[in-house]
Amino acid sequence: MSIQDKPALLLVDIQKGFEDIEYWGGHRNNPDAEKKAGKLLELWRENGLPFYHIQHCSTTPESPLVEGKVGNDFQEVTQPVQGEPIIKKNVNSAFIGTNLKEQLQDAGISTVVIVGLTTDHCISTTTRMAGNLGFETYVVEDATATFDKIGPDGKRYSAEIIHETALASLHNEFAKVVKAEELVNKFFPVST
């Protein structure tokens, strides 16, 4: 794999609404996930590689991600600039109800790199679909994050456990799970 293969970076749901930690579960892991995603976006921009901003437009009225609310806006660290592609979705998968698959195929893209929020919801669902649609798929574990969850029995599961088990379910089945540094070394090797 090299940058000649035009891997596309999918920046999933890096939106201000996820800064409301209490709303989503009271605790989250990977506090630097968005910064790492932002650094990857800088690399993609510098190298003229394709990337897509994915924006969740919730249909749940009380959600901070409802279109028109401040929480629907992108975080500054990955803020799109004019002309950059934005894919709006209202379900967990960036491929359902959007033309993302067609945009990727029309651009000749066969590899996707997925970063963003949240690991066990939109990251997992988008990753599973990307793998099933035949894309070579990478998920950047330290550029993704999630929140604590309450199980059906009332038991609280930590964000760290949710994150780790979601990634374990994806790894080598739907995608290759990598750290940001590993991904950078793979796609942007420094020639010596």
What's the short version?
By secondary structure, this protein is of the alpha/beta class. It has six helices and eight strands, in the order βααββαβαβββαβα.
Strand runs, count? 8
Question: What is the averaged pLDDT score?
Answer: 95
Percentage of helical residues? 25-40%
Instruction: Based on Cα principal axes, name the global outline.
Output: globular
Low-confidence stretches: none
Classify the secondary structure makeup into a structural class. Answer: alpha/beta
Can you summarize the main beta sheet?
A: 6 strands, parallel
End-to-end separation: 19 Å
The share of residues in extended strands comes to 15-25%
Order of helices and strands: EHHEEHEHEEEHEH
Question: What gyration radius follows from the Cα positions, in whole Å?
Answer: 16 Å
